[in-house]
Structure formats: C-alpha cells, structure tokens
C-alpha cells in the first residue's frame, strides 16, 4: 500500500547475486517490500523467482548482497536474531510441503512447539482455529496430507505458515495446479487474510488472475534483476518487450477484463 | 522476541459491570499469561475491556478474548471492548467468524463386532492378495508364451540388462555369503563330530546341507532382498509418474515391456547364482576342514565324490526356478500396487521384500516335505 511506502521496508534486498556454476541467475538485484502489502513476483521460466524466495528465507546462500528482513541484516545476525526473524515469517511451499507422517492438525502444531507455556490442548485449539481461518472444514484436521486434494494441501500448508501469526508470508506458486474456482477462492483467501491479519505477502506466481485479484504491487524479474516494480496499471505502460508481451498477451487481457468487470 | 508483558487492572467495579484495562502484547508468545489473567474473571456480570493499551494482537490473543466472550455469553453476560482500534476490531471479527466448532462426535472404542469385521476384512484382503499374485503369475506365463510365438515383441536388450543387474552384480555378495556359511558349517560340525571321532563326516555334513538347502535358500533370500525391492522401486516409480499409464495409451503392454524381461532374467540367473553359492560354500567348508581338522583338499574331494550323491545338488537347484518366479512376481506386483504418493512406494517396497522372503521360505518348506515323502 502506497501510504506505507515512506516507512522502512520489511524486506530489503541489495545487490543480490545468485549463481549456479557458471550460470548467473541474479546479478545486483535490489528489492524493497513494505509492511502490509502483497507483492507478486513474476518472470519467465528460469528467471529465478523461486530462487529469490529461497534466498530470502535462507535456503539458498547468495554469492553476494545484503538481505535485511524486519530490520535485521541476515548476513550479520546472531543465531538468536536469526531465530527471532524466522519465527516472524511463514513459508508455504508449492505443494504444501506438509509432514506426511503427521495429521493436518499436528502439522499446524509443529511451529507452536517452540513457544513456551503452550499446553497440548491450547495448541490443538489454536491449530483448529488456523485450519478454520484458511477455510478448511473441521474434519480436515484429523486427516493425513495424502488424504487431501491438492487445493486442501495448499490451504493446510498456509495454515502451518500462519501458525505463529507471522508478519511476512512467503507463498510459492499458491495457485499452481488448482482449478479456476479453487484458484480464485485461494486468491480471495490470501487477500482477506492479508488485510485482516495485517500480513505482508511475498508471492511467486505465474497466474495473471492472481496478480490482478490479490497483488498491490508487482515486481518483474528479468535480465537477472528486478526489472521494474509497480501496480498492475503501471505494468501496462512499461515498454520492455518481455513485460509488454506478458501484460498485453491474450491471457493478460482476459484476466484484466474479468478483473475490471468485478 | 521482546514483547511487552500482559497486565490486567481493574478500573471500576459494580454489581453488574466490571471495567478492566488490558495492556501488553496479546500474542501467542504471551498467550499463557493472557489466559491466566482472563480465566479467573467473574462470570456473574458484564465486562468491559479497555484495550487501547494493547500493543499487539494476533489470532491467538483474539482467540483467548473470544473464549472469554463465549464463557460470559453462556452465563448470559456480555463482553465489550473499549478503545479498540480498527485493526483490533477486524481481527476479532475474522477470528470470531472462523471460530472452529467441532462437528463430529468423538470416536467410540472398538467393540467385538468391529473387531470381527476387521478380522473378516483382513482375511478377505489376504485371499485377494494371493489371487492377485496368481493372476500375475498367469499374466507372466501368458506373455512369456506370446513372446515365444512372436519373438519380435520380446525385448532382448532389456533382458540382458536385467540379467546383469540381477545376476552378475549379485555374484560378489552371494559368493561371500556362501563361503562364510561353508566356513561356519565346517567349524560347527567339526566341534560336534570330533566328540565321536567322526571328523571325516564333516564333509558329508557340509556337502548335503549346502547342496540341498542352504546354498540355494540363502541365495534366494539375498536375491529377494536386493531384487524384489529393486523391481518394486523401479516399477513403482514408473507407476507414480504415470509412465505405465502412458505406455498403455501408446498400446505398449507393460507386462511385456517390464515384467517379462525382469522375471525371465531372475529365472535364468537364480540357478546360476545358486550353483556359484554351492561351489563357494563347498570351498569355504573345505578350507575350514583343512585348517581345523586337517582334512586335506584332496581327501575332501575324494570324500565328496564318494559320499555325496549328485541328486543332492539337483534337489537343491531344482528349487531355484520356483524361487525366481516367486520373487519376480511379488516384486513386480508390489510395484504395480504403488499409488501416486511417495509413502506408498516406500511401503510397497518393504512389503515386497518381506513377502518375497517369506514366500521363499514357505516354498522351501513345502519342497522339503515333498522330497522327504518321495524319499528323495
């Protein structure tokens, strides 16, 4: 949201360089994300959208660059500061990445086990609340991930990401593999939760409808860096060839039309 | 994380209304303290919470506050928030709307009917499994016959590849195992037979037990362990990635492409492995007999040829094809039972190994009885 723009960013990337062998994925990449906004990361295949997400949450160590999350420089942070930051973000992986030997409720309880003084009953009740918040039926809590559909697994993954009421949620392709109805429900869920819980959402997606329906701001990854950021309307005016064909293609136009109708 | 502690102070109290001020961070980290503060509040009057001093509120905190509201509601009283910010109000509303209500009755304990039901299901499942294996065996034999009639459909390259994986690569482990078994038999036999001065019979002991039983049985168990699991894993992962479905839509027969080369490779290789095991077992026994009892290799040889009928070796090796087909069928069948998740792949792989080893031992026992009855 633009009114927050003057505040310090919650995620601040400077000069990130990621490299696999000789293949450079990111070079001198900068990005700022502000509190309470939903930012969609788009880019062609192989532009390192997921790598960028993994870099921020510490699953991938960049060759160079500074990552600052919630005011903590993760390169210089002590282990304790690191843990504090980790507790304040939640990550939803593509297929939920739920622990297959645990039920959905137990999955959501896992992050809560680090909080001292929460007894098992409270944990289970809070997990039930999170499961209900993401729109899963009460009975889903007793099921194992393999018994759920793809859309339900994603919701359960989101419930686990939200377990400790994080400030930032990272979503990796939240609507990939969902049918259009399920996808648009998920879009609305993300938007609703972000608004009512005050979440900052970092969202990697390919889905133009998701970009229209949920994102406050869009960051385009191309040429090994964040080429441009801005709202959907601003994206339409960018005349970089890739950005232009992405936001002016037939699919983009269809998505824009439906968004306008709504 | 440094989050301000919870404090709850009374502002005013009448018989019907209690006004309190809540301050601090109502978050999951402070949930225990928050619950401790809220739980003892009286339920006999309305409560007003002054919440402008609440610095942070998350869903856990909102949940605790809603729990209090629900308790009061039950007693016919109400809870009101004063000085709540917009965010505070919207979060309370969100959590209130999502508040989970259990909609199932708790599961009851298993009674006798349920147990009988379970027993019946298990029995039927066992029969189904056996008949499936039989059907699989039939499928294999039918396809084998077909490949004799139409040799062009037969995949020779795959057969050679599997022969290497199943047979050649198993030679070191099978040889070592058989050699050590021979050593152990000679050592154990010699200590027992020495008491009677019948050391020389250790040759018969080694020869008969290795040739008739141990050589081929232990080889089959090792092959069941390494090959049945490999078959299940290979076919199961193809099943998982829908490769088998793709083959069917391309009118390729998975039985012909996958099962026949694998099971046939086992059928060809297991007797050879059994023979190698026999030779290595005798070698190990002879070495130990020489070292421990002073029976020279030449004497061992003479005694072996004189005292041991060749029928023992035949009795042993005749079991090999039966073991081979069993292991192959169990492995391939388990592979086809894999569903589209990784857990079922792991489960089926270990189930295949257990079933294959068990089946090998059962068949061996049946052969023992058969040969004993036939006086062979």
UniProtKB/TrEMBL annotation, chain A:
InterPro entries: AAA+_ATPase, ABC_transporter-like_ATP-bd, ABC_transporter-like_CS, P-loop_NTPase. The keyword Metal-binding does not apply. Keywords: ATP-binding, Nucleotide-binding, Transport. SMART domains: AAA (SM00382). The keyword Oxidoreductase does not apply. One of its GO terms (molecular function) is ATP hydrolysis activity. Residues 11-248 form the ABC transporter domain. CDD domains: ABC_Org_Solvent_Resistant. This is Phospholipid/cholesterol/gamma-HCH transport system ATP-binding protein.
Automatic annotation (TrEMBL), chain B:
It comes from Thalassococcus halodurans. GO terms for cellular component: ATP-binding cassette (ABC) transporter complex. Signal peptide: none annotated. Could be part of an ABC transporter complex. Belongs to the MlaE permease family. The keyword Transmembrane helix applies. Residues 7-93 form the STAS domain. It comes from the Bacteria. This is Phospholipid/cholesterol/gamma-HCH transport system permease protein. It holds the Pfam family STAS_2. GO terms for molecular function: phospholipid transporter activity. Keywords: Cell inner membrane, Cell membrane, Membrane, Transmembrane, Transmembrane helix. The chain crosses the membrane at residues 124-145, 166-187, 256-276, 282-301, 313-336, 351-372. It is found in: Cell inner membrane. The keyword Nucleotide-binding does not apply. InterPro entries: ABC_MlaE_roteobac, MlaB-like_STAS, Permease_MalE, STAS_dom, STAS_dom_sf. It is a multi-pass membrane protein.
